[in-house]
Amino acid sequence: MSKHISKVLRGALVALTAAGVVGGATVAPAGAATQGKGSHAATQAALDGLVAAGMPGVAAGTWTPQGTWSGSAGYADTDTKRKRTADDHFRAGSITKSFVATVLLQLEAEGKLSIDDSVEKWLPGVVKGNGYDANKITIRQLLNHTSGVHDMVYTPEWNEQMNGQGFFEHRYDIKTPEQIVAMGVKYGPDFEPGKGWRYSNTNFVLGGMIIEKVTGKPYAREVERRVVKPLGLKETTFPGTDPKLPAPHPVGYSKLYVPDPGPQIYDATEYRPSWSGATGEVVSTSGDLNRFYSALLQGKLLPKKQLDKMLTTVETGEHYTYGLGIISRKLSCGVQVYGHDGVVWGSLSGAAGTRDGKHMLTFNINGDWLDQSPPFENMFEGEFCGSAAKTGKAVAPQAVLGPVNH
Q1: Which residues of 127-136 are buried (b: 16+ CB within 10 A; e: fewer)?
Q2: For residue 192, with 0-12 CB atoms within 10 Å meaning exposed, 13-18 middle and 19 or more buried, which class applies?
C-alpha cells in the first residue's frame, strides 16, 4: 500500500488529476447526510463524494446486525455507462496481507513455527548482503513492517518495468517470489530490525515464501485450504499468472503511477499478479471480504492468543496503527476499526470492521488516483460514524504497488 496521494501512497504515487472521467453528476458533499440506526445515507454520500472527486466508479457493501446493504456511484465502464454493483470482482491488493498473516498465525498455533523465528531459519540465504542479517529479522517484524527490509516497489527497477509505459511492456511477465525479493534486498535496509516502521511489500512476499517452506505448498493454496474454503468465500481467488478477472468486474482505470500525470487514463484491468503475489494478489468481492474480516475478528480463524498478537499494533507515524497484516483506525467518533486497504493498477480498495466483527464495510474504486485523500477516509467515517471526517488533515489509503519515491 502506498502513502499519500498528494504525497504518494506508501507503495504508490497517486497523482492529482481527476476531472473528466465521469462528468456531469451533481452530488451532495461526502458525509452530508446524518446516518441513523440502520441507515447508510452517509455511506452513500461518501460514495458520491468519491465520484465527485474524479473517480470513475465505486461500489460498497456492508454487514451489520440489521442485515446487509450495498451502494454504488459512477461507472464500471465509462464508455458503456455500465454501473458498479456489489457483485463486482476486483483486485483487492494489500488486503492479501491479512490472509497471509492469518495463515502464518495458524501455523504458529499448530506449533509448526513461531512468529519470533528468524527469517534465516526458514529462508536461509534469501535475505543477505547489502547490510542485511536475516538472523536478526523475525516473522513478526515482517508482518508488522518493523523489519527494515527495503520495499521492492521503491526501486528503479520496479519503476522502470511496472509504472508508466513500462506497465504495458511488462504486465504479462511472470515473476517468481525470489526475483521480487531480490529486487528489494538489492538495496540496503531502511533501518535495523525492530528500530523503526516502514511499510514494505517485500515483507509479505517473504511471508508467502515461509508458508511454502513450512507446508510444502504455495501460499495461495494454503490460504484457499485454510481460509477460503472453510468460510465459503466462493468469489475469492488467487489468480497467480492468469491476467484476467472473473465476471462481473469493472474496467480498471489507471494513471500508471507516473509523477505529474496528464489527463490520459489507461485501461489496466489485465496483468499477471505474480508481480505482487503474497503481498497483493487476491481477487474478491465486497461480500466475501466482509465475511472474511468478520470471521477473523470474531475468532473463527485464530485462537485468542494468536488473534491478540495480530491485533497488537505498533505506531506508524500515520493516521493508523499497524498489527500483523492488519490496519487499525481510530475514527473521529471514537470507533476503532480493523482491516486493510489495497491499491494495485486500476483498483483502490478498503475493508474494515468493528472489533466484535459485527459491523463490516468493504468498498472498491476502479481507479488508482485521487485529487485529495479525505474522500477515501470518508467511507469509513460515513459508515461507522455517520458523517464525514471532522478533520481537514489529508490522509490516504495504503497501497500495495506503485512508484519509487513517496
Answers
A1: beeeebebeb
A2: middle
What are the contacts of 24-33 at 24+ separation with CB within 8 A?
25/51, 25/52, 25/73, 25/74, 27/51, 27/52, 27/73, 29/388, 30/374, 30/375, 30/378, 30/382, 30/388, 31/378, 31/381, 31/382, 31/387, 31/388, 31/389, 32/388
* Average pLDDT value for residue range 339-357: 97
Give 329's strand partners: 320, 337
- DSSP codes joined into one string, 39-51: --HHHHHHHHHHH
Q: What is the pTM of this model?
A: 0.89
* Domains by residue range for the chain, with CATH: 92-333 (3.40.710.10)
Model confidence band, residue 97 (pLDDT cutoffs 50, 70, 90): very high
Mean pLDDT of the residues in the chain: 88
Going by C-alpha positions, the residue among 311, 316, 104, 308 that lies closest to residue 204 is 104
C-alpha cell, 290: 466482509
How far is residue 201's CA from residue 11's CA, in Å, rounded to a whole number? 8
Show the cell assigned to 129. Answer: 548482503
Give the orientation angle of helix 96-109 with respect to helix 201-215, to 10 degrees. 40
* 328 assigned to active site: no
Please name every residue paired with 387 in a beta bridge, in sequence order, or none if there are none: none
Cα distance between residue 255 and residue 11, in whole Å: 15
Query: What is the predicted pLDDT for the residue at 245?
Result: 98
Burial class (CB within 10 angstroms; exposed 0-12, middle 13-18, buried 19+) of 174 = exposed
Question: Tens digits of per-residue pLDDT, 253-293?
Answer: 999 999 888 889 999 999 999 989 999 999 999 999 999 99
DSSP letter at 193?
A: T
Pick the catalytic residue from 2, 70, 72, 94.
Answer: 94
Query: Does residue 336 surpass a pLDDT of 80?
Result: yes
Q: Which of the four pLDDT bands, split at 50, 70 and 90, describes residue 11?
A: very low
Radius of gyration of the chain (CA): 19
Residue 192 corresponds to which amino acid?
E
